[in-house]
Design goal:
CATH superfamily of the largest domain: AhpD-like
CATH architecture of the largest domain: Up-down Bundle
Helix content: 55-70%
Distance between the termini: 7 Å
CATH class of the largest domain: Mainly Alpha
Structural class: mainly alpha
CATH topology of the largest domain: AhpD-like
Length: 189
């Protein structure tokens, strides 16, 4: 975690305006509950509404990357961006999508940590997007051996979305939700 205190405190239910409550309504209808990220972003309800629309695409079946592979990308972005909040949230989601504890630990090590060719290509592409906002031709070609054109597009959309999310979380100082524990590799930043 980059900040030990939030720059914007998450809003409690009693602090919400009708517009903020409306922006949070789709989140309340979901299974995860109203997490600190959403309570923080509710301070900008119009932005939260649009943020949720795009994020819903990235996390939905409309994203052609299989859920497990999508979570590899999200976790790698969260780790590279040093976003403790993001990494913790998506560790749970990744486990639910078929990743193992060992794989989540290896995501932190990178593409050379004993991955299949397809998984290594995802991690390499995510690293390249993080470092240079571009996937090189060799990596793009390798991705094409394992993923469709639409899946490669969705990889870029996913990495971009979670880079933005990590920037928001890090800069606003969104703190972990109750009962969560920060990954030890993201404590000392």
């Amino acid at each position: 975690m980059r900040l030990s205190q939030p720059r914007f405190a998450p809003l409690s239910d009693t602090e919400l305006t009708p517009e903020q409550e409306a922006a949070l309504a789709p989140v309340r209808a979901g299974t995860m509950g109203v997490l600190n990220i959403f309570r923080t972003l509710a301070r900008a309800p119009k932005a939260l509404t649009r943020f949720n629309e795009w994020g819903s695409y990235v996390l939905s079946r409309r994203n052609d990357l299989p859920a497990r592979e999508r979570e590899i990308v999200i976790l790698r972005v969260g780790y590279l961006c040093r976003s403790g909040y993001e990494f913790v949230q998506h560790t749970r989601i990744g486990l639910d999508c078929g990743l193992t504890e060992d794989e989540i630990q290896r995501i932190k090590q990178g593409a050379g940590a004993g991955w299949s060719a397809a998984d290594a290509a995802l991690i390499r592409a995510t690293d390249e997007l993080h470092a240079d906002q571009f996937i090189t031709d060799p990596t793009w070609t390798e991705l094409g051996r394992h993923f469709s054109d639409k899946q490669r597009m969705d990889l870029v959309f996913t990495a971009a979305q979670y880079t933005q999310v990590s920037m928001i979380l890090n800069t606003f100082g969104v703190q972990l939700d109750e009962g969560q524990t920060l990954d030890p590799d993201l404590k000392a930043y």
